[in-house]
Task: inverse folding
């Protein structure tokens, strides 16, 4: 069966510091991969998605970036965090064939001080 | 701009009652429809998928889809306190999901 791993679970960072969040998927090949952010009490905002290695589409222009160095690895980065980057970051995967749902990792709760 | 609308709630129902959660969407090209449950502080969990008009039942859950009215609903029978969570409606076109803001359900013992 497929599993998705995200780490770390929680992170507290000062303003202006860099960020790297990692997500890996097991048990499937060539998945679609997604990064979402959920602000407190709000809906899910799609940040990036990827249909293959090195292929990244950005939905929201901001100081975040994403990379997919391997088929089942998706990384969310920032060079300098802002206070507004606080939130719950979720990685998700879906199969590429047909109308498939997305499955989420456990998320990373990021607090910026 | 694709939109998915849900009443934010909270929807409060007594234990054992039927909870009815509703969702409308704007894009007639939408192909697939999903319901996710999200407990406080946790990630969304897929609970139902529906692809064609009509009803789909899975245990205590029934999803209903009406593409002509652009309307999706989720019924939870015999509601339990453990069903208390936020329920997210998601509408798919191609590889992309558009999520509603979620409805918070509270089931009172």
Result:
């Amino acid at each position: 069966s497929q599993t998705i791993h995200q780490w770390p679970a929680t992170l507290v960072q000062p303003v202006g510091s860099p960020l790297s969040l990692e997500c890996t998927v097991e048990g499937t090949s060539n998945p679609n991969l997604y990064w979402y952010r959920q602000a407190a009490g709000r809906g899910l905002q799609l940040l990036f998605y990827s249909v293959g290695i090195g292929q990244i589409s950005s939905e929201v222009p901001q100081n975040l970036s994403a990379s997919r160095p391997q088929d089942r690895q998706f990384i969310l980065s920032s060079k300098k965090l802002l206070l507004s980057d606080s939130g719950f970051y979720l990685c998700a995967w879906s199969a590429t064939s047909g109308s498939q749902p997305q499955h989420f990792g456990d998320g990373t709760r990021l607090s910026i001080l | 701009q694709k939109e998915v609308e849900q009443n934010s709630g909270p929807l409060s129902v007594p234990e054992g009652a039927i909870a009815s959660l509703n969702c409308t969407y704007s894009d007639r090209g939408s192909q697939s429809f999903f319901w996710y449950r999200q407990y406080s502080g946790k990630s969304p969990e897929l609970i139902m998928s529906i692809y064609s008009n009509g009803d789909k039942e899975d245990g205590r859950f029934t999803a209903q889809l009406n593409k002509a009215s652009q309307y999706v609903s989720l019924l939870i029978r015999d509601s339990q306190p453990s069903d208390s969570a936020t329920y997210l409606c998601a509408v798919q076109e191609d590889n992309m999901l558009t999520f509603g803001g979620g409805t918070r359900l509270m089931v009172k013992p």
